[in-house]
Amino acid sequence: MDLSLRQLSAYAAVARYGSFTRASRELRVAQPSLSRTVLGLERTLGVRLLERTTRRVECTPEGAELLAVAERLLEAHRSEMNGLERFLRGERGTVAVATLPSVAAALLPSVISRLRSRTPEADVHVLDGMSEAAVERLQAGECDLALVAAGRVPGELVSRPLLRDRYFAVVPVGHPFAERSALTWADLAGEAFLATGGDSSVRAGADAAFERAGVVPERIVRAGNVSTIGGLVSAGIGVTALPALVGVLMSFADHVRVPLTDPVVDRGLSVLTRRDRRPGPVAAGFLALLEEMRAEDHPLPRDVAWTH
């Protein structure tokens, strides 16, 4: 049985109004055409749907049942089409963002809050991890965009600079370095240095800075994540150096931040998208919000700046 939405809409109008004349005006369809549509339905179903008199049209029992079915189907169609229109306007849908934990904690809350205030039906999936994993997720189509440490980008991806955050020294409360107005990387090399895993952008930046300073840390204590390092610094086990956004992840631990010089080191952060895939409406809206916040110099944590 194959009944079209056009047929069901025409029949429902006639049944509701009890008149071919009123239904034809409502639908802006010629009355003879409307009559042919209803007759076609009756032939398809093999039953009489309407009792016609000179004064009124009334549903037969079969016609009343079809009217109930038609109204449910038409309402479902209207609802789904309305949902599709909202999706196409970027008012509903999902954006998946792969990013570093520091970006997820320090930047994304304000972006997501602004997105939700404008599009309450939009959902954001945050996939946090290392930059390499974020790039792989983007390549595999598991996310719409990636916010990662700047670096080499595969040819199928497009990279746009977004932020830069400055490295600073993190030392225990009461440590002699805590009273200094600034430290050098050479100063840190003489202490037990707490280092993140070798696959992190934080570690890569610190290693490059030590190399530029021409020094090598005398003792390295390795830890899997920044939270662990925060606890170790708080306990006086050693010192470390972190980009400013990463410092947000250590807010629970007692420590002192000291500016780092010789050299001054900034970490770049970029937005990556796929060259061969246009972002969906909500993802496009998310990217537009990032640009909007950059243009207005939306406030960022200390020692973090938008790239212009």
UniProtKB/TrEMBL annotation:
One of its GO terms (cellular component) is cytosol. SUPFAM superfamilies: Periplasmic binding protein-like II (SSF53850), Winged helix' DNA-binding domain (SSF46785). One of its GO terms (molecular function) is DNA-binding transcription factor activity. The keyword DNA-binding applies. It comes from the Bacteria. Residues 1-60 form the HTH lysR-type domain. InterPro entries: HTH-type_LysR_regulators, LysR_HTH_N, LysR_subst-bd, WH-like_DNA-bd_sf, WH_DNA-bd_sf. It holds the Pfam family HTH_1. Keywords: DNA-binding, Transcription, Transcription regulation. Belongs to the LysR transcriptional regulatory family. This is Transcriptional regulator, LysR family. It comes from Nocardiopsis dassonvillei (strain ATCC 23218 / DSM 43111 / CIP 107115 / JCM 7437 / KCTC 9190 / NBRC 14626 / NCTC 10488 / NRRL B-5397 / IMRU 509).
